[in-house]
Amino acid sequence: MWKWLHPYANPEVSYHFAGKILPWLSALTVICLSIGIVWALAFAPADYQQGDSFRIFYIHVPAASLSMGIYFGMAIAAFTSMVWQFKLADASAAAMAPIGAVFTAIALITGAAWGKPMWGTWWIWDARLTSELILLFLYLGIIALHNAFEDKNLAGKAASILTLVGVINLPIIKYSVEWWNTLHQGSTVSKLGRPSMSADMLWPFLFCFLGFALLVGVIICIRFRSEILARNSIRPWVKKLVSAQVPTAQHTPVENK
Amino acid sequence: MQFENINDFLAMGGYGFYVWLSFGISTILLLALIFSSISSHKQVIKNIAMRMQREDKLRQVRKQNKKSTLSASPDKLLNKSTHEITQ
Predict the structure, then answer these.
(1) B19: which chain A residues are within 8 Å (Cβ-Cβ)?
(2) Which of A22, A35, A70, B22 is deepest in the core (most CB within 10 A)?
(3) H or E element: which one contains B7?
(4) Do A219 and B33 touch (CB under 8 A)?
(5) Contact (CB, 8 A) for A46 and A54
(6) Could you state, in chain order, the average pLDDT of each consecutive group of 10 residues for chain A (257 residues)?
(7) Is B30 within 8 Å of A239 when comparing Cβ atoms?
């Protein structure tokens, strides 16, 4: 496996690999998301208690679990870059942070719009909501640290430390509905193998979840590529690539005479 | 299909405002993220191209200076070329 993984430690190989899978991922994303969203909005049955407001669930739950999933991925990347000084891991962590922030914001906003008709309030300082808000602030802090230093290695190190410290928030979010009395309902989908949902509600959810997860993959690929270019801008392969794309930047190689 | 007609669909059983608010804001945020990612990729490429042009110009200026100072002070030339190598 190490032999197979080894070439991907090379920024150039990773750049082209991400570019190659990008169109396939995008196509799959469009297919899954359109099936999932149309099914969720028009064909899935309404909830017997919550009526049609329940359809917010199809965005809210994927966004919330992906906001935690992306953070987990970012923490693994941060750990890798801290321990093995692996520069591509920094680039991928920097690529993931803004995506996680957007998904956290979506989870909070859709949660508020669902809470208003169901609980009678947009916001309440309860454990689940507050810990998710802290996750948003963690993401914003990490993005700020990535942009605070001219030296990307130093920035990556600072952001990695904050990322790893913030991991403590993940179990707090996950188990907040069990540890504290909260307005937020418990888990519906991942109840240890037997989800308490009927199949005609579960299937559109799975399509939505897969669609959003693929979308995360697509945006990570786009941002990862720009992070690689920005961090390797003095390398010959980047210069060659740039001069091929921007015709005005005629790169004349250094003559050794 | 759960809804009889388009008005029924838009009303969402009385929860239309909340449902469409959620789906609308999510769509806007995700589209904004996608387009800003694509445009920042283009910006990175543009910035690198600009820096390459600047380096090329600097190199040409140095080459001309080298020619003019070649006979004048070989000492200066030595400094300059070591500077170039370290870059």
Answers:
(1) 41, 52-53, 55-56, 113
(2) B22
(3) helix B6-11
(4) yes
(5) yes
(6) 67 91 95 93 83 89 94 95 89 95 96 89 88 95 93 91 94 86 71 66 91 96 94 89 77 50
(7) no
